[in-house]
Structures are given as C-alpha cells and as structure tokens.
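Reopening this one. Same input as before:
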Amino acid sequence: MEPQQDSAATKPKDFGKSEHGCDHYRRRCKIRAPCCNQIFPCRHCHNEATSNLSNPKDRHELVRQDVKHVVCLICNTEQQVAQVCSNCGVNMGEYYCDVCKFYDDDTSKGQFHCEECGICRVGGRDNFFHCKKCGSCYSMSLRDNHLCVENSMKNFCPVCYEYLFDSIKGTSIMKCGHTMHTDCFQEMAEQNQYRCPICSKTVLEMSTYWRLLDEDIEATAMPEEYRYEVSILCNDCNSTSKVPYHILGHKCCQCNSYNTRRISAPDNQ
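Same output, byte for byte:
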C-alpha cells in the first residue's frame, strides 16, 4: 500500500488525535489481521465481521498479539507495528502497548498493561490488583474482600455466554465468587433471580424477603394431609435438615435461608 503523495512531510505527533477510529476505539491506524490478511479498524471489528460469516468454518477470532502490520490513517502507509508512523511521524495511538499491539487515543480510560493477565486493562493501574487465584485484575476495593474461585474470570458469562476474561463489558463478582457481566447481573436481579446461575447460592440481599416468607408461612396453615416433614438441602450452607412441608418454601435450620431444595419424598410415603 503506497503512502499518499502529500503526506510525506512529518506532522506533529498529536495531528488528527481522536478524529479517527471506530465504535470501539479512537485511533489513527487500522490493523492487518494475520489470520485472514484483511484490514480492520480494530480486533473487535474483525471479530464481529468474521463471527457473521455464512460458513461456520470461516469464523474465527483475532489473537491481538499476532498483529504485525498496521495502516496509518493519516498518510495511508502500511508498516510494522509501532506507536509512531514511520512515514508521517504521528502517534497512531496516544496509548500504545507493544505486547497487545493496542492503540487508543482516549487516554482518559486509564489503560495499563497487566503482565500477569497478559493483556491491557482500563481504569488506572493504581486502582486494580491482580488476583492470582481468580486469574484476573480486580478493583482495589476487592483486595482481601472477595471469595476466590480458581480462574473465575477465565470462563463464559453464565447469562450471555461471552468470554469474560477479555470482554470490554464491566464485570461483577458475586458473593459466591463467580463472575458475570454487570449488566447481565442487573438484568437477572430485575427478574427476581436471586441465585447464582452456576452454584445456586444466594447472591442478592434477601433477608427482608425471608422475613416476609416467615410471616406468610406462619399465617398459612397447611391442610392436615400435607402436615409432614421433608428432607431439604440448603444451597447456601450445603447443610441438610428435616423441616415441615409448606407450599411457600422450606427454611434451612442452620442458616435460615429459604434457598433450599427438597431431596426426599415425604416421610409418610
């Protein structure tokens, strides 16, 4: 690809800053995807395009570290990856990572590269720490304040099934330690789904609802033929117990949670 004739003169490094890019990033270059030899504004644009190909065998994702060549959007010169254009001298990205081959003019995101994650993150290095057991960067507010689950971020969101580790969406860590997209978590809460989709533990504050259930059960006597005990397993504390059957719910004798399930038939059957 030949450079434009009028662009050989060196330009200021901030020339055209934030004026170019795509829906995902502001940057002054495009990337050549080594997997299919096509040019795209960014890896997300590539992945969106290839995931919609009619032949499933042609669908694939770009490995960011494999990018070797970029095209400057100021002078149209294709070149090896670098922050500064070898032809016109502009910064092709105000933020640049040589490991991820990542460019972004919007530095207000607070981009930083995490060596242990192996990819770039946003939010400011001082605001995050890397949890080795969970396998990802978490907010400093969660240091010594979350339940670790081995490689919990290296899984798919249990609601939308997008891979969490390198997702550009925000992620929430539930009380049980499992992770999911924040917007998926909020949507789940709006649908009154209070259990983790993975382990079934309670992930919302349910104490008020449990008290209301106590009152409803006390006020609703079961008919004589339904007055028997059943065995239950608590999803929250994993204990088993025998409790009186009630159509509204069964309360754990250990932790007082109603997040339980029956594990046996009635004793009188």
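So the earlier flakiness isn't reproducible anymore. For the record, DSSP finds three helices and 15 strands in the chain.
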